Amino acid sequence: MKILVTGATGNVGGELVKILHQRGAEVRALARNPQAAKFPTGVEVVPGDLTDPESIREAVKGIDKLFLLNGVVADELTQALTAYGIAERAGVKHVTYVSVYKADQFKDVPHFASKVAVENALREFGVPYTILRPGYFFQNDLTLKPVLQQMGIYPMPIGTAGISAIDSRDLSEAAAVTLTEQGHEGQTYDLVSSSQIDGPGNAALWGEVLGKQIIYTGHDFDAWEKQMSTMAPGWMAYDMRKMFQGYVERGFASTEDDVSRVTKLLGHAPRTYEAFVQQTVAEWAASEQI
User: 137 pairs with which residues across the strands?
Assistant: First the structure.
């Protein structure tokens, strides 16, 4: 069984490649720059880009299954449907696709709407599939090190009601299960942790572990979008703004049943945000001592 992993150099795809290799699967990793990619010995690395159909045609030759993950980009829908369409024509036997939790309830968020369209295509065209719908990634907050440590603020506008979230490593594990075990065809899995995170709670937790006061800056979405647009393209700042505003105005909370189902899928309880923060701060401290 040979599995093609897209997004193989990112957090989710990179971890998935390692897990699949450990499970004895033949793994082909798609990378824009194969020479710079670092994977376990025995992993086949091929050049490719989801914006280049010819490279995808080469990459899918001889594969049995496809892990389809593409980033939040302006042409996300085109990239995903191109990869899926080419894999379908090549006779792929299964696709595991990474969507997002409650995607169909946030159709005004551009990248959520793209994922809903891909989900619909998967359900329509007959290739066996599994859809994974992760919540907010814990790892999104890894980018906050400077503002947490130097400015003492938690700036992500996630509100106060509590939203669903997941460790990206649990997504990688879930993907590996669906790609190497039977019984997951046609299933949609909501991937969430028992941790319901919120702005003030996250600020307090980071403050406790860092040993300093951390303040939640609130959820002024106009101000947040303006600040975000200084660091990212305007379309992305707007997309993220709509996502966070949707979380606050419509809710993004998960249920105990969601957590129970993902626990059964993984074979263990999903990681918690509290454990993620503690591990992250310990790693930051260790790196500063080197």
Answer: 166
Q: CA angle, corner 246, sides to 197 and 222, nearest 5?
A: 100
51 pLDDT exceeds 90? yes
pLDDT exceeds 80 at position 233: yes
pLDDT above 90: percentage of residues in the chain: 94
What CA–CA distance (Å, rounded) separates 78 from 211? 46
CA distance linking residue 146 with residue 124, whole number of Å: 45
Residue with tokens 């593409």: 70
pLDDT of 36 higher than 80: no
Question: Is the model's pLDDT at 235 over the cut of 80?
Answer: yes
State CA 58 to chain mean position distance: 25
Show the tokens assigned to 100: 């997002």
- Identify the three-state secondary structure at position 214: coil
- C-alpha–C-alpha distance, residues 32 and 145, integer Å: 28
Q: Are 66 and 3 in contact (CB under 8 A)?
A: yes
Q: Are 13 and 28 in contact (CB under 8 A)?
A: no
Residue labelled with tokens 């990112």 = 10
Q: Cβ–Cβ contacts within 10 Å for residue 124, how many?
A: 8
Overall pTM surpassing 0.85 (yes/no): yes
What is the three-class DSSP state of 56? helix
CA dihedral 29, 34, 36, 42 (to 10 degrees): 50
Strands 94-98 and 129-134, by their bridges, are parallel
